[in-house]
Design the sequence.
């Protein structure tokens, strides 16, 4: 295992996010199995929330499918592994309110929880099965008008 994955493993153990993942896997009656790079896979997760085909808490990737089927979906697995790294970088469970805030901003901007969510974008939108949706029409019109706005007085003075 690469040193970076060892650091992620230790960080997520220390910050409690992997323990939270193990507890959520148990609540969802998922069977834990070893994955690659220090990750655990909670296969056959049974709770209805979240509705995603896979999600990550710490170094635990929960999925509704079998471990071997997930290992065959390399892009999705890589996407979820990037979320494990995000948990390590965000001091563990602190990532959850940050993630949900980013999802809310994304929904306001596009009507989709993932399209403009910084965590999903950094993990790879397409790898996670997300579409890159445009801004809502009213926001797109406003942004277009703002981009065509005349120079401000400050800019005019500075140029003179």
Sequence:
């Amino acid at each position: 295992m690469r040193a970076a994955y060892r650091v992620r493993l230790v960080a997520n153990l220390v910050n409690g996010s992997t323990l939270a993942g193990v507890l959520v896997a148990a609540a969802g009656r998922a069977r834990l199995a070893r994955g690659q790079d220090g990750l655990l896979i909670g296969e056959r997760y049974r709770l209805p929330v979240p509705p995603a085909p896979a999600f990550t808490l710490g170094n635990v990737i929960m999925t509704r499918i079998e471990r071997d089927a997930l290992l065959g979906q390399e892009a999705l697995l890589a996407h979820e592994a990037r979320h494990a790294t995000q948990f390590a970088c965000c001091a563990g469970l602190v990532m959850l309110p940050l993630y949900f805030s980013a999802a809310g901003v994304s929904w306001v901007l596009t009507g989709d929880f993932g399209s403009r969510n910084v965590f999903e974008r950094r993990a790879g939108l397409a790898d996670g099965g997300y579409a890159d949706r445009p801004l809502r029409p009213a926001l797109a019109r406003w942004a277009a008008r703002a981009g065509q706005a005349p120079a401000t007085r400050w800019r005019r003075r500075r140029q003179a």
About this structure: The chain has eight helices and four strands. Helices lie at 3-14, 17-27, 67-72, 74-89, 95-110, 118-123, 137-147, 153-159. Residues 16 and 92 are 6 Å apart (CA to CA). The chain has a mean pLDDT of 91.
